[in-house]
């Protein structure tokens, strides 16, 4: 085996639909990587966009940068998020896969830092980092995903951590070791939020590591999937049902996760002024998770009939 064959290859999987102006920026951020540890394969999976994305991609030739290849996966009809993600997954040839939304960005040191960490830790199946969440129109940084007052606490560990605490890793921050991923990719029974189950199954074959650096940017705009109302909770509960059925050793973590979901629902109901619904959700949470001061406080407000001031 030559030294070149020993070098790791990273596939950057970009999922896109009607994001042409943003997609150009996303690809440019990959081309700007200071990556010296191997080759980069850019896989762009377009889900039958109607904004000219396909024709623009078809016009692209190989990039002039050495060691960067492009693979175009162009759907003839709109498949939906999970099938389109699977199309990208199937085309990835790298030892590692870095996931990127067609509207998100990488910082120049991202791939180098993540591959270096994963090469140094053969047990690491998932590596993620902090990202800036920014407003698309103004460019203003709204918050950080895993740090600051509004950030989600970063977690490490294995599959149990992923089940208990949900998607604490931002999708565009996540790099996976491909051999640790389920061979089928993403479960098509979950139309939109199939990434959580994918992270859970991947982390059963290795550890989750957090890189405490801001190495990406998550764009907020009116067309974000997370900005459009959807049956997210139903898909999360379906995920837990699948996990509980297939991996009985994670049943306790699943029940804990359900408790967290009930508490989050209680908080939303309280914000909406639905005190009766809030009380029911708090009770459902109490039988599943350890009582916390926040839970006690919210429960008391709901019991006393104290509504949130508007």
Give a quick summary of the entry:
This protein has helices at 3-6, 20-31, 53-59, 81-91, 110-120, 159-165, 195-203, 232-246, 251-271, 275-286, 293-304; strands at 9-16, 39-46, 68-74, 96-101, 105-106, 124-135, 141-144, 175-177, 207-220.
CA-based gyration radius = 21 Å
* DSSP summary, beta strand count: 9
Q: What fraction of the residues are assigned to beta strands by DSSP?
A: 15-25%
The biggest sheet amounts to: 9 strands, mixed
> End-to-end span in angstroms?
67 Å
Structural class by SSE content: alpha/beta
Based on Cα principal axes, name the global outline. globular
Low-confidence runs: 1-5, 227-231
Helix and strand sequence:
HEHEHEHEEHEEHEHEHHHH
Q: What's the rounded overall pLDDT mean?
A: 89
What share of residues is helical? 25-40%
Count of individual helical segments: 11
């Amino acid at each position: 085996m030559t030294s070149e064959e020993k070098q790791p290859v990273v596939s950057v999987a970009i999922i896109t639909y009607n994001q042409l102006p943003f997609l150009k920026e996303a690809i440019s951020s990959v081309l700007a990587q200071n990556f010296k540890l191997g080759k980069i394969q850019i896989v762009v999976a377009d889900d039958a966009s109607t904004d000219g994305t396909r024709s623009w991609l078809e016009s692209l030739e190989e990039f002039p940068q050495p060691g960067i290849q492009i693979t175009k996966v162009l759907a003839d009809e709109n498949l939906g998020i999970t099938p389109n993600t699977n199309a990208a997954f199937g085309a990835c040839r790298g030892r590692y896969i870095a996931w990127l939304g067609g509207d998100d960005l990488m910082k120049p040191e991202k791939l180098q830092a993540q591959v270096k960490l994963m090469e140094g830790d053969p047990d690491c199946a998932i590596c993620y980092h902090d990202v800036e969440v920014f407003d698309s129109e103004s460019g203003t940084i709204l918050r950080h995903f895993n740090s600051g007052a509004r950030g989600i606490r970063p977690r490490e560990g294995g599959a149990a951590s992923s089940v208990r605490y949900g998607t604490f890793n931002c999708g565009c921050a996540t790099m996976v070791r491909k051999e640790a991923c389920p061979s089928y990719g993403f479960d098509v029974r979950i139309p939109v939020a199939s990434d959580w189950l994918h992270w859970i199954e991947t982390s059963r074959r290795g550890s989750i590591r957090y890189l405490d650096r801001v190495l990406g940017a998550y764009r907020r705009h009116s067309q974000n999937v997370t900005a459009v109302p959807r049956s997210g909770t139903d898909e999360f509960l379906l995920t837990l049902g699948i996990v509980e059925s297939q991996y009985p050793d994670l049943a306790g973590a699943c029940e804990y996760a359900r408790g967290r979901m009930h508490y989050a629902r209680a908080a939303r109901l309280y914000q909406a002024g639905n005190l009766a619904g809030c009380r029911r959700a708090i009770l459902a949470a109490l039988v599943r998770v350890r009582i916390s001061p926040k839970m006690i406080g919210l429960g008391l407000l709901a019991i006393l009939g104290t509504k949130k001031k508007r």
